[in-house]
Structure formats: C-alpha cells, structure tokens
Design goal:
alpha+beta; single chain; 2 domains; 439 residues; flat; 6-stranded mixed sheet
Length: 439
C-alpha cells in the first residue's frame, strides 16, 4: 500500500473508481436469481482467475484496495478542507479595521504588524535614495499587504510627535525645549467600518446574482397527486470596485528624515483613506467613482417615526427586517445627537430609562449595539443585519505608495507622497436594512 500513500486525493479517487467498476462487473455476473452470489459464474476476470474460491479471493483483494484508496482520499481531502476552512476563517472572520494579534493577549504594536511607514523606511532602495538627496521620484507597491491591516496600523496613532520628535538622531537637538507630541486637527472618527464584514477580490467589478422573486408553493400532496411547484427569478447585479486616494506634500528635509516618514504616512494617508471609506459606506451616492452607501441603497426598507417615540420606530424597523427582509437585525446606526435624545429619556418622575447619569449606561437599543456615526446629519437612523450574507466590503488590492514631483515642487524642494486603495461595497439583500426617518 506504499504506492497509495504517494497519491493525491484526485488520483486516489480515480483509482478507486476503476476498482469500483471492476467490482461492480464481478457482482453483476455473480448475482443469482434468488439474490445470492455464485462466484463460480464470473468470467470477467479472464482465464487466470476461475472458480468460486479464486474469484472470492480476488474480490477480497479488490475490496481491500478500494478501502485503502477511499481512506487515503478522505484523509487528504480532510486536510485540504481544513486548509480551505482556515483560509475562509482568515477572510470571513470579520476583517473590520482591527489591530491584528501578536504575542500573548496584549502584544506591543511592533509585534503585531509592520506599518506602511516602517515598510517604506526599511526599503533599502528608499534609504539609498534619501541618502543621495532624494532626487527624482521613487515608487513602492505592497500588493501582499491587506489594506485593512495597513489602515488599522495607521489608526494606532504612532504620529509625527511620538515617533520622530523625541529622536535626536532624526536631527532634533536634545537641548530643544519642546513638549512631546502635538495637537492634531479635529477629525471625524472611524465609526461604521467596524461592523461591515470585509473580504478580498481580484476583480475590477463584483457581479452577483440577486434573488428578485421567490414564490414558495410547497404543500402537502396526496398519493399520486401532482407535485407543488415553486418559482424563483434572479437578476444579475454589479458593484464596481472604486478607488480611494489621498496625498500629502512634504519637504526634502522631511523625506531625508526616514523615521519621520513613517509617522507621516501612518497619521495622514492611512487615516484619510480609512475615514473616507467609512463615510462612503454610509453616504456614497453610487455615481462613479463613489460607492453606493447605506443611505442611497436601492430597495432598503423605510420606517417613519411619525408620532411614535424614537425607540418604538427602531423596534418597528427591526420587525420589518425580520418579516419582510427575512433576516436577523444585528445593529442600529444613528447620529450621536439622536442617540443622545434616547440616552436622556426619562420617566414622568425623572428616572433615566437608560441608566443613572453616574453610570456609562449600555449603548444598546432593544438588545442591539448602537453604532454612532456623524457622516450624515442627525434625524435619520438605520437598523440592519450586518452579516456577510447581506452586506460585504471587498478590497481589490493592497496599498500603493508613490513619491514624486507635482507641478513646481522640483524648484520648491518639495515632494508629494500619495496613497490609494480600491474597494467595492455590495448589499446582497437591501430588504435586510431599514431606514428610520424623522427621528
């Protein structure tokens, strides 16, 4: 059986098929009218194997070989299945912009994943280029880097002040009296991306089939009666992959300061790309090069607040998702001011419904987490089933970093550092989401 051990699963299955056909012919010839087997009747094995005993021995040998081939194929297929499941878990395990794990439960960031800045700073070609005065342009491409990991690393805030200003080797004299860090400009935080499942794609557009009609007709049927007949209809949809870009101008001196480049790329480009993507997932209008976000989703359900209290409107939206959308709602999305109004609700005698002001209180409504977003103005909220079956964000490639001249920068001693990445947002079942208006 040593030769079996060297077979692939496909080869083992092919050999197993041959054995099965051979055994089938033997059993077909040996079968008697009363359902028994008379192996002395078998002639398909040729003149060398005749008689009941010889044929039975041959049958046993063939059966043992078939068993060995089947067990071998199952073992290899089990290992291959485990590999595929591992890959699927790596992709499907929510790849929101999280910080990848490292050693232990609380790894240092440098144990987790290298940032774009670190990768650029460690490029030998970049170091040589910077040492020679940073003349001309230079380009890098990191196609094997997950955009989500790179952008997540950028959210770690290893910024200009914390990375470069404290290093005397970067050209800053130790005698300088300067407080560490700096006050960053006010920026909208990332809010929606953490609940949207993320996957990778190698296509320029995501064609998919939407089930636009499903009529169930399953019914009890009497013996001999005609079968019930259901009907289904599908429509091909396409979600194009769109590019999101950002760039920052830098001086020659900054380019020559290699450690400073790391903080510059992390705290500027990556956050800008990530923040824009976050907003597009909610308010993108779907007109190229925009993604089509939740607010402009065609086929989304609607629930008006009307005279209802705001919590009631969201509960009715949950019901619509269950009854019409045939999905299980997982999250609410609303503006912080709208959540404020809910959080401050009180009974007639002044008791806060969502908990005492001395407590943080649960950011949940009807048992579901509340995601606060301000990419869209207050007054409109959403409830949805944010599961891979109904919505997914696909990234087309890793992050490209390019450095070069723009316009008159050559004579000004400047360069432009630019970054881009590409995504497609697909809502497979719009009815699994509901817009709550007038809150």
């Amino acid at each position: 059986m040593d030769e079996v051990k060297n077979l692939t699963a496909k080869q083992a299955r092919e050999k197993l098929g041959v054995k099965q056909v051979e055994l089938g012919k033997i059993f077909e010839q040996a079968k008697t009218d009363d359902g028994q087997y008379d192996f002395s009747k078998v002639t398909c094995l040729g003149d060398k194997v005749k008689g009941g005993v010889a044929v039975a021995e041959k049958v046993k040998a063939l059966n043992d070989e078939a068993d060995a081939l089947a067990q071998h194929a199952e073992t290899i297929e089990g290992a291959e299945k485990a590999a595929l499941e591992h890959a699927d878990r790596e992709k499907a395990a929510p790849r929101q912009f999280k910080f990848p794990g490292g050693k232990g439960n609380y790894p240092s960031e440098r144990e987790r994943i290298k940032s774009l800045g670190e990768m650029v700073a460690e490029e030998k070609s970049y170091q040589e280029w910077a040492a020679k005065g940073a003349g001309g342009g230079i380009a890098f491409s990191y196609d094997d880097v997950w955009a989500s990991d790179a952008l997540a690393k950028g959210a770690a805030y290893n910024t200009l002040g914390s990375k470069a200003l404290l290093e005397t080797g970067s050209g800053y004299a130790s005698e300088s009296i300067r407080l560490p860090g700096f006050t960053e400009a006010v920026s909208r935080p990332i809010q929606l991306l953490d609940i949207i499942p993320m996957f990778r794609t190698g296509q320029a557009a995501l064609p998919y089939m939407e089930e636009t009609l499903r009529t169930h007709a399953a019914a009890e049927t009497a013996e001999g009666g005609a079968y019930a007949e259901s009907s289904f209809a599908f429509t091909e949809r396409t979600s194009p992959v769109q590019k999101i870009t950002d760039s920052v101008p830098v001086t020659d001196e900054q380019l020559e300061d290699v450690p400073m480049m790391e903080g510059y790329i992390n705290s500027r480009l990556t956050f800008g790309l990530r923040q824009r993507l976050d907003g597009q997932c909610l308010v993108g209008n779907g007109t190229a090069p925009n993604l089509r976000g939740l607010a402009n989703l065609v086929g989304i359900q609607t629930q008006a607040k009307g005279a209802d209290p705001v919590p009631d409107a969201f509960f009715k939206a949950m019901t619509k998702i269950r009854v019409t959308g045939r999905a299980v709602p997982t999250h609410h999305v609303m503006h912080p001011e709208d959540w404020q109004d809910i959080r401050l609700l009180r009974t007639a005698d002044g008791i806060y419904i969502w908990g005492s002001p001395s407590e943080a209180g649960p950011e949940r409504l009807w048992g579901l987490p509340v995601v606060q977003q301000d990419a869209q103005a207050a007054g409109t909220g959403y409830t949805g089933s944010f599961q891979p079956a109904w919505v997914s964000l696909f990234e087309r490639k890793g992050v490209d970093i390019l450095i070069g001249f723009v316009g008159t920068q050559f004579t000004e001693g400047k360069r432009t550092v630019r970054g881009d990445t590409r995504f497609a947002l697909v809502f497979f079942r719009p009815a699994a989401f509901c817009e709550v208006t007038g809150i």
